[in-house]
Amino acid sequence: MAHDTTRGDTVLVLGATGGIGGEVARQLRDAGWEVRALKRDAQEGKREGITWLAGDAMDAQAVRRAAKGCSVIVHAVNPPGYRNWSELVLPMLDNTIAAAKAEGATVVLPGTVYNFGPDAFPLLAEDSPQRPLTRKGAIRVEMERRLEEASRQGARVLIVRAGDFFGPKAGNNWFSQGLVKAGQPVRSVSYPGSAGVGHQWSYLPDVARTMVELLARRDRLDAFARFHMAGHWDADGTRMSDAIRKVVARRIGTRVGVSAFPWWLLTLASPLVVTFREMREMRYLWRTPVGMDNAKLVAFLGREPHTPLEEAVEASLEGMGCLATAPVAAVA
Question: Domain of life of the organism in this record (predicted)?
């Protein structure tokens, strides 16, 4: 859908090298937006139709300068490797909020299900109570509280909440770090969920498309707007694994099995590896079905952008380098 570029829409994307940030940056660019991206070690200049600016999301002045004249700020930034996540996340958000208030801009935040506890499961609506179980969830609730406050002080806010991400670019997600290994041929699928337990997945390009379409209509949004995506619902934990197996069989003629994810290994390595600790903290979401009600989104947009699962899985495995046939070792 083409965007009306006569409005001089300029967007700043924080986290443009990450999965969702990169996808939103590319899709906004393709929809005719002027896209700026902030990156710690950027060589300033325009590449791939995006203006890259050197700066850190932890530096309030850098964010403020980069956001000058922007009508939208996409806040998709995470500390590298999730190191010091709890200490850095809120200061980063405060810098975005300050810039958005100064510009009267809309902050776009990719939301998570960590905000909710068992009392809100199994189907989450936008107004479900947010009583999280984890430290990470509590920080996520505080992020949304600060954004809601900012929406009463000159900024505008759009939160799009989706399930576990997967997409053509590897990132910090279960698909590329748990089920398969980015950059390696698929030899088996390692599934983290309990047998028979439903799980929700979201294809990154669909999430980005949803954000782009909502932003195109942002004059009709509330100052603080939240939308849930239904994404791809895997009712018993076999649908995603089966889609991976089908794609691998069709593309490289290999039959792959499914094994249980080695949670014990995460437990063992957690004291040493921050990412493993973060993954382990989310285990409860694999032991209970958690889905999202997208009725509000469908009422507003008319539909939810949705790529068929097998097509989405194929594009993801392809983009992550998992469909190249393994090189044959030469005999010495």
Answer: Bacteria
Closest C-alpha to 55, from 71, 73, 67: 67
Cα R_g (the chain), whole angstroms: 20
* Structure confidence by residue, pLDDT tens digits, 70-92: 999 999 998 766 677 888 999 99
CA 160 to chain centre: 9
- The rounded Cα 181 to chain-centroid distance in angstroms is 18
Structure tokens at 314: 């194929």
Distances (CA, A) of 268 to 70, 187, 275, 287, 298: 46, 24, 13, 20, 43
In a domain, 324, yes or no: no
pLDDT tens digits, one per residue of 123-167: 999 999 999 989 889 999 999 999 999 999 999 999 999 999 999
Q: Is the pTM of this model over 0.85?
A: yes
User: What CATH number should be reported for the domain holding residue 82?
Assistant: 3.40.50.720
* 248 lies in some domain: no
Closest CA to 208 of 35, 93, 74, 48: 74
325 — pLDDT class (breaks 50, 70, 90): low
Tokens read off for 191:
């599934």
Write phi, then psi, for 24 (nearest 5 degrees). -65, -40
Backbone angles phi, psi at 75, to 5 degrees: -100, 85
- Give the C-alpha separation, 192 to 38, whole Å: 34
Kindly state whether residue 251 falls inside one of the protein's structural domains: no
Closest CA to 28 of 15, 39, 6, 13: 13
Q: Kindly state whether residue 47 falls inside one of the protein's structural domains.
A: yes
Report the alpha-carbon angle 172-178-184, nearest 5: 90
Rounded Cα gap, residues 219 and 227, in angstroms: 16
**8-state DSSP, 127:** T
**Lookup: tokens for 134:** 């984890």
Q: List, in order, residues 6 or more apart from 70 with CB less than 8 Å away.
A: 10, 11, 12, 36, 99, 103, 105
The crossing angle, in degrees rounded to 10, of helices 309-319 and 239-252 is 60
Measure the CA–CA gap between 235 and 275, rounded to whole angstroms: 27
Provide the domain limits for residue 108.
5-170+199-234+288-312
